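Input protein
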Amino acid sequence: NLPKNADLVVKSTAVPNTNPEIRAAGKLGLNILSYPEALGWLTKTYDTIAISGSHGKSTTAALTSLMLMKANEDPTVIIGTKLKEFGDKNFRSGKSNLLVIEADEWRAAFLNYSPFITIVTNIDLEHLDFYKNLNNLKKTFLKFIERTREGGGLILNHDDKNLYSLRSAILKIAKKKKFKVFWYSTRNRPNLSRIKANLRIPGEHNLSNAMATLALARVLKIKESTALRAFSRYRGA
């Protein structure tokens, strides 16, 4: 199945090196990259907004993408689910230099990425077949946070205890890499009712995801009203 003019093969990390196509590509001397490696290369060529966390990545990426589209920023988007707004696809090709991606922590895939802005929604006990324990998971998230480009920004969930427990280490990284840290929270927000009124997807967890997107709006100097209009369009994947 390899095209005759191929010079690069991108494979899922679930595909073993014994796969016949991968073996054939090796014999032909073609470059072989895993999907995270290939996406990592793209993150270096764009101003990348990477959305990570144990839960909420797809929803936050969707809300972020729709907000950027509403603000006429025309992003390229690679998301982990199909969106009706993308014609039931998980990809959108934009003309700006903004790239929105989900940064998956599975097998530490996100350590391939070099985002300009990093969003972390939460840290939970996931993928313990790989990480073994919460401490290893936290350490790997810190390594990912450190991959944020110098002068960029971090947007983090203040309400998540596992993530907030890393605040001292995160501040050290931020000082070293010269980027700003923005914590968001669903607590004590004056106009929370306005956000709830515009958000069409239910649940406190989705309210938190929306807050992450609103924090990004402030960082990018996008009007909150623009974000709220984007929220009202989204009804889930």
In short: The beta strands are 8-11, 31-34, 47-52, 76-83, 89-92, 98-102, 117-120, 153-157, 180-184.
